[in-house]
Amino acid sequence: MAFKRIETLMRRKDIDAFLFLSLENIRYLCGFTGSDGALVVAGGERTFLSDSRYEQQAKEEIRAAGFKKYKRKVVGLAQFLGSLGIKRLGFESSAMTFESYQQLKEKLPRLRFVPLAGEIRDLRARKEPEELGKIREAVRIASVSFADALPRIKPGARERNVAEFLEYRMKRNGGDKPAFDTVLASGPRAALPHGAASEKRMQKQETVVVDFGVRFMGYHSDETKTLILGKPAVDQRKVYETVRRAQEKALSAIRPGVSVRRIDAAAREVITRAGYGKYFGHGTGHGVGLAVHEEPSISPKGIGVVREGMVFTVEPGIYIPGWGGVRLEDMVLATSRGYERLTGLAKDLKENILVR
Q1: What domains appear along the chain, each with residue ranges and CATH number?
Q2: Which of 14, 293, 313, 325 has an alpha carbon 20 to 30 Å from 79's alpha carbon atom?
Q3: 300: left (phi over 0), alpha (psi -120 to 50) or beta
């Protein structure tokens, strides 16, 4: 199905071949899981190119594609592309360095390079059943691991120690590795949307934002919990409930055909009306799959509409400098009737008050 879309795009753009360089798209299209290579689609043929380090791995993993070995990447690509006798080459401009682009242009002066990053932006946005199975397992591993780590989230514990234990449990429970460096930020540090865990000790009455995920067979999970270490103060309760309402409003807007910007606007409207608009500085969500952040982008600048099979996060937040912050994040699957929540950890305030 993916190759049919690519071939249709090639005909529409009048290009003779397409060069893929992003590892996520290469894995998606031909199965290669290594860390370097290129995939060329031309004339109904698909060829994966890499060096001797990955020759055996490529021959074992790649599907529906041949294999070519090179010694030096740009030189090898230029030689192979030159042998095809093509005139117009589409390529992922977002995945090619300017230096590589210049070198290829110099070696292939008669070849027209056509950047097509935007046209393949949503290539992986709709997930196949096999992909969903891996995403669901990643979510399961992350959820079990969070439960393992939860007793350690308490006054006096260091953020870094808890984050490292959570990452350890994600590996022990079957994950490849953490999807990203775990965010664990407490008290005023919770105002940092991507606050890496520090040596700070958590204190009574503080909010604690925990953003975590795991990679399983290449696919990722991503979820955020906000906990309160003790009975919530009035302002903590107000901010938390505002974020919760914003998330619910965004979720209720999800259905096939709705603009991704409309989903973002639904969450942003709730937060703005509550007086916290200037403290919500990021998008409401992003796609999750072979990359932690991929299409669709659920933001004021997002492009396109929701389609059945898309997997993305819904994660509004409020971040007040000097005070702290709250973010609630779940992954959802767009369905024919709306959505299915893939992450299942409780987000109700009463379920996230920890009294130790």
Answers
A1: 2-120 (3.40.350.10), 129-352 (3.90.230.10)
A2: 14
A3: alpha
